[in-house]
Amino acid sequence: MKDGGISTTKSDSYIFAIENNSIPICFDPLAGEDGRKLLFIPKARRRGPLSIDEINECRYDPKWRIKRCFFYSIFWFGWIFSLLIAILITFSHPKCEFTTREWWKDSMIYEIWTLSFSDSNSDKIGDFIGIIQKLDYLRRLGVGAIFLRPIMRVEKSGLGVIEYNKLASKIGNFEQFNELIIKARIRVLIDFPLVLTSISNPWFDKSALASVHPEDAHFADFFIWRRGIPNSEFISEYCGSTLKYFHVKDRPDLPVLHWTNKNVSDTIKAALSFWINKGIDGFHFSSIEYLHRSEDGKDPNWEKIAKILRSLRIFLDDERGGGSAREKIFLFASHAHLSEASKRLLIEHASLNLIVNTELQSLASGNLICSSKNKGNNIGECANEIIADLLIFHKNDEERSATGLVEKDEDRVKVWPVWNFGNAFTPRLASRVGSRIIAEILIQLILILPGTPLLYYGEEIGQKDLSRGKFPQRGPLGWNIDEIEEENPHFSSTNNTNITTTASPSLNKPKASQISQNIFRNFLRLSNLRKYSNSLRYGNVYITKPMEHDAFLLCRYIENNRENDRKFYGEITIFAANFGSITRILPLSQLFPLFQQNNSKNQKWHGRVIANSINALEDYPINSFLDLTRKKLIRLGPMQSIVIQAFNGYF
Q: Where is this region: Disordered (predicted)?
């Protein structure tokens, strides 16, 4: 094509070049013979555990062998090195001595007069089933042990045993007693009169007539017999004869066992073993002062008494098979007017667990035991003086007393404090001090103090003595708290509860049920606090001197010095009480821990009211907060008390 067009004619040379010199086509190496490309599918990797073949391949591969040996060596050298470091740290650093805290140091003991506590069958006598029905109540109180008296068959006063292996009349049978032991889930302690029997005890007549009845020769020296000596308050004649015997002071109906006679000690040990096999956890040894007396019977010989008690401890430990403190039989005793030296003797040498402080049993309105200067109500001053003296006696190396009269004594025997206001043989606290409110304040006080409270049933509601009766302190406990002070408290399961052996409570004021409820609630608050508060469980104690005879402060605190800065950190429990009839102002600066903080401008103290007396509810409501840094004075009206939990901080 010519004339400006494109020529489509190929020249001969071009055609020749194309036909005779063709360029070979290069196919893809993955293509087939026909030139078509082949599809390449990579081999998929198998997931999961190695197969046996793969494992064997790695096992015999020299490369993997070297790696395995290397990591094994690293592991074992590291493990051995860590073990050596742990051993080095263990033996090169100071160690804390492992100790088990005895159960009674964190518990309350609750004394029950079994014949009056709770009647299940409406026979007007308390019984085991009645106690079983009230176990939830006892657990709610927070008690760690119940102390039952009487259990065995005794005479009416409860001091002299008639039969050691028989239960008291009408309180139940051994099957019911066993049910109580199983269901209690708290420790069960019983009163065991070691040395006093009743003249109704068959041993007494057998012993007196052993010389004429050879078959009773075994009982000849069961009691202390004498001839040719004058009668006295401790000695009486047997049935008008010349034969005379020793007995409790002014109680000829309670002859004293002759404990130096092996037949007696073996018989009593057999009785102890009998009750251990019944499942009890401990004994209260009553009237131990009569275990060994002077020739005239007037004075106890405490050293020989301690030896007798020590022999019983060894026997009981063998019966229980030794073991830890939690497994051993718990032993305690009480005796009025026991000296400090005798208390130490009975703990250290006789190996009793506790000795009850009976000094507070003398606390009564208007008595002159503590002070003769104050002519009015001296309950506050008297309680302060007794408690301060006992705290000095019981002090440990960290405790301080407001009096500051006693220096540290490393050799002093540590006797654990047991606080008690009364029992089945003393008038009730509320009757002695003349006021349920004062009694409530005093019960709050022993719940704050270091040691073990031993409560007599009914004290948690401020119960008073009955208006009449030979033993008014053993009145029935009214289980309907709304009617606790009514004429017929619900002691039995029947509505007809006109107890013939005891009289009805003497108080019948309006709103009495509200008083009982508030006293009971405050008791529960402090009882629960004792379980969880470190200051109440482990803290030191500080008590001030009486202010105007009838008010004082007390606190529990844990001293945690940081680089010996002499400051207190954490929790302090403060108890403030006014026992008088006039409003008092109590300065918190008198308390040792707070006094130490006066020069610290950054440290602040705040408090929460956790308990109070029933007449302080409006002035200091429960759970109300106080600024103790600004408010350094506590104003208390007549017969008021409060318990404050104080905490510090920095602002």
A: 488-510
